[in-house]
Amino acid sequence: MKTAILSDIHANPTALQTCIEDAERKGCTRFVCLGDIVGYGYDPNACIEIVRSKNMLCIMGNHDAGLVGRLPLTWFSYVAKQGIDRQVPIVGDECKKWLDNLPYKELEGGGNGFHVAYAHGTYEFPERFDYINYVGEAFHEFPYLRRDKVQALFVGHTHVANWFSQNTEDIWNIKEGFVDIEDVSPIDLNGEGGVIVNVGSCGYPRNQPYSIYCIYDDEKKTATHRVLEFDFDDYRKKMTSAGVSIPLWLDSREKRAKERRVEWR
Asked: Model confidence at 167, in pLDDT bands (50, 70, 90)?
């Protein structure tokens, strides 16, 4: 079975729908959302509706937690806090209740002992919403994965599509890889030491200027990032129509994306 794993939608239903349609064309029959459905963007309600309509397994992100009061707004940057403040009154009570019931992480075990986990930031203390940005931060996460026999951990939060793998014979030997749009090769999840895969951002690509998500193939035991063109014009128009400030990253990321245009595959 192929599972599409998305994260950091950030109230951008156009990008979300683009990723879903691509995943279905690629044969995905199951969807997982790693959180941050809300925040920053122009239509949190539409994103919540889409996620729920697809029966996605959904994890709580820090922006979701902030919107329902599980995380103090002092935790957030000024821009992030602005987005949450703006969305609190427009997200309905029933949707807030649904967000408030989302788990911080999920662990799934296959019949062959292959365990997969999902979290927004980290596995061991998911409610803290720590980041795995660097090899050193990944190093501290791997012992918890080995303890619970987790072979693959899928996360989001950083908006950077990358992965870390560890060699159990030499725990200091951690490899890191980043998505290259010209060679998006499958990541082998069968390594003895486990793999941490960041699926990237679907709807708020401030680090990599594309909509990125990941396909997990539980038969081949691989994870493959999908890199899609981000509709900058649509995003700018809908943010303006909703009265939302255009993020500072938009112009520079659009220029980068045009320089390395994605060919749809």
From this structure: confident
